[in-house]
Write a structure and sequence with these properties.
The complex is a heterodimer of chains A (243) and B (103). Chain A is an alpha/beta fold. Chain A contains ten helices and eleven strands. In chain A, a hairpin with a 3-residue loop joins strand 9 and strand 10. In chain B, the strands form two sheets. A three-stranded antiparallel beta sheet of chain B has the order 1-2-3. In chain B, a hairpin with a 5-residue loop joins strand 1 and strand 2. Chain B is globular, with a radius of gyration of 13 Å. The chains are: A alpha/beta (243), B alpha+beta (103).
Chain lengths: 243, 103
């Protein structure tokens, strides 16, 4: 099967607008991108006060945006994190939310394997290395289409990440740690060498080739029109502070 | 908190490792607002907002019935409907008790 490969990237609102547009239109697509500048995304159903440290965000000049997908808060470090998104008609994917989350996240595990990192799935949407989270995925659906996006932390600034994200005490206690810092890692840390963006991107392209042939393309005019409409939603206080 | 009025809030860790929070506001024995938040997944996403709108004005026992019924149309991942309903019932138990005594 042939998938369009998109490498278009921008700020947080633009990135979320593109991913939602991919879901709305439903052309089989694999996208890799960075958040430029760095940003935080929170899950569709998360409360702002439970998921991010607004004071730290303000001090660091980092914006947050509410995703169209469920799941938890994520720090997207412009210099150390690559995000993937996969979209297409629902019949291309396993039926259940859990099944499709895990199936698509295989791409991240294969990408990490390309880099020399042995990773495994944990829970319904995390990828871990030696018990530490290195990637998380989230998914949204329309009646006909599905879109899943997720992270790969290849060199994320974990101190900054632990400053800007909030995790419930119960979640940390469950994992036997006292701060987010203790439960995350990056490919660079695991391999004890700095992984570059280009290296991470190449690994992701190879990793997600398990889906089929990836052929580089662009957004269509109709997709761009949807993106233009959605950017204002993702920039709005009404959407971002809805919970 | 006056009888039948107040803000109620409960946080739970689901068996699948996600967190969810139920927030309810009651005034004079009726639900004014209901929000379900957390790092779980739900499809269709809008359904949770719609439930929140539909339950405004209901008494607690009726509220529970409506939420239970509407959740049948929602696919959840990361939290199951049973543990969600348990949390809601626990949160509303003082109000369900007084409601039963009155009737």
């Amino acid at each position: 099967m042939r998938w369009r490969l998109l490498l278009i990237e921008g700020d947080a609102a633009f990135n979320m607008a593109v991913d939602e547009a991919l879901m709305v239109i439903g052309t089989p697509t694999v996208r890799f991108y960075r958040f430029r500048p760095s940003a935080v995304t929170i899950g569709r159903f998360q409360r702002v006060s439970d998921s991010v440290n607004l004071e730290a965000l303000s001090e660091l000049g980092i914006k947050f945006v509410r995703r169209p997908t469920g799941g938890g808060s994520v720090f997207h470090d412009e210099l150390g994190e690559i995000t993937y998104s996969v979209a297409g008609p629902r019949e291309l994917f396993p039926v259940s939310i859990e099944g499709s989350l895990r199936w698509i996240a295989k791409g991240v595990i294969k990408a990490l394997d390309e880099l020399g990192v042995k990773a495994e799935l944990s829970g319904i949407n995390d990828v871990v290395v030696n018990g530490r989270k290195i990637s998380g995925s989230a998914q949204a659906r329309t009646k006909h289409n599905l879109m899943q996006h997720g992270t790969l932390m290849y060199a994320t600034d974990l101190e900054k990440l632990s400053k800007v994200l909030r995790a419930p005490k119960e979640k940390l206690a469950d994992k036997g740690v006292t701060s987010i810092y203790e439960r995350v890692t990056t490919a660079s840390l695991v391999l004890s060498r700095r992984i570059s963006y280009e290296e991470a991107l190449e690994a992701m392209i190879k990793g997600f080739s398990f889906l089929g042939e990836l052929e580089e393309g662009e957004l269509t005019d109709s997709e761009l029109e949807v993106v233009r409409r959605l950017v204002s939603k993702y920039e709005s206080r009404e959407w971002n502070f809805r919970y | 908190m006056s009888r039948g009025s107040g803000t109620l809030d409960i946080r739970r860790r689901s068996r699948q490792g996600k967190t969810f929070r139920v927030s309810l506001e009651l005034r004079e024995g009726r639900v004014v607002s209901f929000t379900l938040s957390g790092d779980f997944f739900a499809y269709p996403a809008e359904s949770l907002d719609e439930i929140g709108e539909e339950v405004a004005g209901l008494e607690p026992s009726e509220f529970i019935k409506v939420v239970e019924s509407r959740l049948k149309e929602v696919e959840l991942a990361g939290v199951d409907k049973k543990e969600l309903m348990e949390a809601i019932k626990e949160l509303l138990s003082p109000f369900l008790g007084s409601h039963r005594r009155r009737t």
